[in-house]
Amino acid sequence: MSEPVGNKVAVLGAGSWGTAFSIVLADAGNEVSIWARREEVAEAINDGHENTDYLPGIELPHAIRSTHDPEEALAGADVVVLAVPSQSLRQNLPTFLPHVQPDAVFVSLMKGVELGTLKRMTEVIEEVGDIRSDRIAVVSGPNLAREIARREPAASVVACADDDVATILQKRMHSQAFRPYTSIDVLGCELGGAYKNVVALCVGMAVGLGFGDNTTASLITRGLAETARLAMRLGANPLTLMGLAGLGDLVATCSSPLSRNRTFGEKLGQGMTVEEIYASTRQVAEGAKSCSSLRALAAKNGVECPIVDSVDEVVQGRMTTSQMMESFIARNPKPEIE
Ligand SMILES: NC(=O)C1=CN([C@@H]2O[C@H](COP(=O)(O)OP(=O)(O)OC[C@H]3O[C@@H](n4cnc5c(N)ncnc54)[C@H](O)[C@@H]3O)[C@@H](O)[C@H]2O)C=CC1
Ligand SMILES: O=C(CO)COP(=O)(O)O
């Protein structure tokens, strides 16, 4: 990526994170065009400067415009930010790609692993768009959308195989409240982001069952060990998992009632079924799908991942949340560090 000639960013997806991240981008001096799947969301953003469905009560900067037309959103944009649910990325890309500028850089905000292919989101972009990996970045960290939208201070990681691209993107998203660090460990950042959602589901289940801080801290810590085990087997830098896209995001998501994944788990722990929970919310809880893909990815690579295995069993309705907690404690004793 050469130094940008323009300052327009297209954000594809007008959910909570796409909208909150647009505020960061606008604060950092970019002109932002958000593509919204539903026309009424685009109209609310343009007319009332508010995303009434996903971030009610937050006034959006006037540098943010929205459209239902992908061509209009992407016209003149040298940075293309993808913020749709992970499992819908592949089906959405063909709508976007014909309108992307030839030298544009892609940024994935998504935290999931594709069911079936077991690909990370940057791998899906690379494959479907036939795009070089050094033009695809990921942003991941402890970034709960509503807190970012309120401009509460937070840090994150922007990772790209090409360090220069990461540095250019870092400048484009460094605002008064948002501090991005660069990294070249795309794999570590993406796996950290996808995995923490599953651990947050598990922690939520424990909270829903009425357990306290010892239980949740134990799950967070063993969840991090499990994340690092798989990520390192696949080639990630272990220090990435100790950083913002690993431990940082894990702690934020597992601790916050704002987290959709933790809330989803909590409802399971309280006895609701998966179907009842899906019917009660429009927002995505990525871990409820990525538990299956991460489980398969771990199995394929011969990595033991009891938390991901058990969360998947609960989500598939083959195990209760109480049985899951009992099974963790009953596992064969072993050293903490292997
Ligand atoms: N909300 C947050 O705090 C954060 C979310 N993320 C990640 O960002 C990604 C997007 O999440 P959110 O914006 O939070 O989700 P959301 O549930 O708030 O919004 C999802 C958006 O995608 C649209 N959508 C739903 N199904 C679609 C489909 N089949 N095709 C196209 N668009 C569709 C919805 O209309 C909505 O605009 C996820 O991977 C999530 O893990 C990452 C960091 C923070
Ligand atoms: O990724 C997030 C915070 O960094 C948001 O988590 P949830 O998707 O669980 O709300």
From TrEMBL:
It is found in: Cytoplasm. Residues 8-165 form the Glycerol-3-phosphate dehydrogenase NAD-dependent N-terminal domain. Pathway: Membrane lipid metabolism; glycerophospholipid metabolism. The active site is at 196 (proton acceptor). Its main location: cytoplasm. Signal peptide: none annotated. Sn-glycerol 3-phosphate binds at residues 111, 141, 196, 249, 259-261. Keywords: Cytoplasm, Lipid biosynthesis, Lipid metabolism, NAD, NADP, Nucleotide-binding, Oxidoreductase, Phospholipid biosynthesis, Phospholipid metabolism. Its EC number is 1.1.1.94. It is an enzyme of class 1 (oxidoreductase). Pfam families: NAD_Gly3P_dh_C, NAD_Gly3P_dh_N. GO terms for molecular function: glycerol-3-phosphate dehydrogenase [NAD(P)+] activity. It catalyses: sn-glycerol 3-phosphate + NAD(+) = dihydroxyacetone phosphate + NADH + H(+); sn-glycerol 3-phosphate + NADP(+) = dihydroxyacetone phosphate + NADPH + H(+). It comes from the Bacteria. Residues 185-325 form the Glycerol-3-phosphate dehydrogenase NAD-dependent C-terminal domain. Gene3D superfamilies: N-(1-d-carboxylethyl)-l-norvaline Dehydrogenase, domain 2 (1.10.1040.10), NAD(P)-binding Rossmann-like Domain (3.40.50.720). NADPH binds at residues 16-17, 37-38, 54, 111, 145, 260, 284, 286. Belongs to the NAD-dependent glycerol-3-phosphate dehydrogenase family. Catalyzes the reduction of the glycolytic intermediate dihydroxyacetone phosphate (DHAP) to sn-glycerol 3-phosphate (G3P), the key precursor for phospholipid synthesis. This is Glycerol-3-phosphate dehydrogenase [NAD(P)+]. It comes from Nocardioides vastitatis.
